[in-house]
Amino acid sequence: RLDEALPDDAPSLFFLDLQPGQRADFERILAAEGAGSVRVVPLTSARLRALDGVDVDELAERRDDGRGRGRWALTREQRLTWQAELGTDNRIVAGALWSEPETPEVSLEVDFAEDIGAELGSVLRFDFSGVPIELTVTSLREVEWESFGINFFLVAEPGALDDAPHSLLAAADVDPARAQAVQDALAAAVPNVTVINVRAILDKVAVVLDRSAIAVQGLGAFTVIVGLAILAGVAALGALRRAREAALWKVLGVTRAGIARLFALEFALVGLVAGLLGSLGATLLAWAFFEHVLELESSIPWWTLPASGAATALLAALFGLTACARALTVRPIESLRG
Q1: Which residues lie below 8 Å from residue 105, measured CB to CB, with a gap of 6+?
Q2: How far apart are CA 150 and CA 294, in angstroms?
Q3: Which pairing describes strands 154-156 and 77-82: parallel, antiparallel, or unpaired?
Q4: Angle between the 256-288 and 239-251 helix axes, to the nearest 10 degrees?
Q5: What is the pLDDT of residue 2?
Q6: Is the pLDDT assigned to residue 338 strictly greater than 60?
Q7: Can you list the pairs that 56-60 forms with residues at least 24 positions away whose Cβ atoms lie under 8 Å?
Q8: pLDDT digits (tens, 9 = 90+) for 230-246
Q9: Which of 72, 113, 194, 274 would bridge with 108, disulfide CB 3.0–4.6 Å?
Q10: Which residues contact 46 (CB under 8 A, 6 or more apart)?
Q11: For residue range 198-219, what is the model confidence (pLDDT) as tens digits?
């Protein structure tokens, strides 16, 4: 999912604490080093003081869910930017962007809005270094955070925060071979800028995820092998009963091939039910883990449910018949006397 969401021109370097007066030198250095997809946005900090006239401390007490998420969302230092247009990794799900010219507007990320209890029309009062500013929520957004673009919980309309003290946050796609040269040039020209090499971090994360996936797949294969061994053992334990059943069928005139088909059908039906239940449970567990723990959209391969059921039915029939092979060869007189 992470590989699919990460675009080809995803930023590899992030730049913090860039001052407005340093932007020209910064962009000149990046252009000289062949950087692509350069994006620079303003960044300011504020404290949320009230929501719809209710003090934030009172709201924090109301929305404390025991995990501290609601309280943290309300009381943390808020990072805001202002933009005329949103990136392609943002999607408006409610309201409209910059739709009320007479009102200073702000757009909220939908989960953040839920955490603080805001909705369309809510008025947020912020404290910018002692200066109160009120912004009205006119749109809610879904953000594709795994794209690793520059995104914010709160985006104000252009002009609403122009006078607020701010720095610049930038990102660019830089060839890994030129990353060190870019850092050296910036250190000489704008030494206050902090450079974060996100691409190197993502590459290491990808390696860890790949190894984790191999480990999980290995554990799954081991589980399948153990399950087949248990199935064969259970079938072997019932060999005596199977021999009596086979003898009875033979006395009634059923051929050995017919008995084998009956046994295979029985094992296949048991395997089919077990396969469908197991794959359904695993799929639901995986979906819940992606949606509620990792908070990533998951694409469930529903075709694996019938495929797993069919494969389990086939293996159950195969191993069951293998374990019952001797029972099929016993003569009826031997089994009935026993």
Answers
A1: 98, 99, 135, 136, 137, 138, 139, 156, 157, 160
A2: 20
A3: parallel
A4: 140
A5: 61
A6: no
A7: 59/116, 59/117
A8: 777 776 676 667 777 77
A9: 113
A10: 77, 78, 80, 126, 127, 128, 133, 164
A11: 878 877 877 887 888 889 889 8
